[in-house]
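Worked example (supplementary).
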Amino acid sequence: MTNHGMMDEHESSELTEDEKRLFADLMPEDLTEILDTGVNRRHFLKLMAMAGGGILAAQSAVAEQLMTRPFNESGPENPTSDSLENRVDVSFNVNGIARKLTVDSRMTLLDTIRERLDLTGSKKGCDHGQCGACTVIVNGHRMLSCLTLAASCEGKTVQTIEGLAQGSSLHPMQEAFLKHDGFQCGFCTPGQICSAVAMLDEVKKGHLSYVTQNVRQPAGPAKLSDEEIRERMSGNICRCGAYPNIVAAIHEVHSGKPVEQIFRSV
Amino acid sequence: MRPFTYSRATDPSSAIKMLAQNPNARFLAGGTNLLDLMKEDVERPNALIDISELGLSDIKPIAAGTNQGGISLGGLGKNTDTANHLLVRQNYPLLTQAILAGASGQLRNMATNGGNLLQRTRCPYFYEVAMPCNKREPGTGCGAKEGINRMHAIFGWSEQCVAVYPSDMAVALAALDAVVKVRNADGQERSIPIADFHRLPGDKPEQDTNLPHGELITAIELPKNRFADKSYYLKVRDRASYAFALVSVAAALEMDPSDESGKRIKAVRIAMGGVAHKPWRALKAEQLLVGKEATDANFKLAATAEMADAKPLEHNAFKVELGNRSIVLALQMAMNGGKA
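After joint prediction of all chains, the assembly is encoded as:
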């Protein structure tokens, strides 16, 4: 018997009202989502953590049922239509692949690429446009996917961290971040790298920053100084404080020449 | 987030009609402020009308009308495109600097000119639905007036609201005497001078602007001026970048060409951010400087006169001295082509 067959067995028993209440107490934010679309990896890890702490001991039957429901019971791109209150059809291109989805009007681009397209490189940091961890490149411009509705992406081209490498060869910015240790925990890194790649395109186009001297000249800043890089990357927060290394990595990609790492206080 | 219907507008007139028909509908342009407020349950629209693909994004010279010789910024133009446009950088560098002083690269790529004008306050009592706030929930009181009000207003506040308006772009627009062009559901266009666009809170702090529901910002016009050589946008904040202003100053000077010393001020514009419920035009300081020499002593006299009217709250008295020094520094930097 296949695994799939086993899952079907568990699926046949629905949660009782009491069990739903128990889970509502444990995970009020996630319950509706779980009931509508099944358990995904995030819920799974959360449940495992709770089970490890003994919280779920009394509800192990329920936990088993939830954990063994297939992740993609109706395919991640096409959840059961009942779960969508205001359905919006959207066709867009993500990392070179045409995608056609039906989303709830409330779905952000970030949740869509993470939960529906399984592209979990883009991170949900603050979910309020203050940290930059969700930065993706839309139609060539860096944007915050947490403040973008998926519904508004009709016909657009989205590039995420997963779309930067060419096959097995990393994007130069990815290489440079590795070389210069441009991260510690790595959570902000996909956003930092997407932001840096698009930021260098802005520099190429002559875009200015608040620290650019003489904004009236037609060309951009004469030199991409540390100060310019810091200002232009200020929308990406790194709580590990890898900033000097991030600046060095960006310098290296911009100049095309090896950059020495200089450790100093900013 | 509460449920809402989403529709993509295909032309401005049908978009405006859709909005006008539903008092709980909102336009969605860049979405950077609206979606955040919807996540926080501060804004609760039941319908979003996506106007981001309507065009209305051109930046072009004005060929006729009262602002002939100036430029027109499309209401749906992106902040990034506006700041970097050659017509803007060369003729209105003050606006370029102000836009670039705000938000982050990602946000400026999303945010539109019209949307920037309609930003709502970042007062934490407005954002936190468990707190009283007359702007969010009229009649509930002001949490900030007797609460933590370090970031709040020192000019023009009322007992009902002490919030400040967050935009940097609008502070430059106030100094540059911009005109906001709006269109209603009947297709009628009208012009609102920037000074009349935003409101002081009074007893209706829930109204940020004088733009009624059912109208669309189609463009922002900038009249021609001679300030491009001597202007500067100074922003003082808690961290070096990506933070709202404690105090900001847009300063622009035009020298009298008939004066031999080249130091006599023919015209001057000063507007402040972070100090009031709207961009605060420092008219008193301006009046004191016209016809005078552009000296540090005169800058100080003008700044002191302007800030004498400030009424600080419990935690923001520092803004009075900060505003005083910021006006002087912004004027000095405007005189020196952006250098301190």
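Two points are worth noting when inspecting this output. The two ends of chain B are 46 Å apart (CA to CA). Chain B is about 30% helix and 20% strand.
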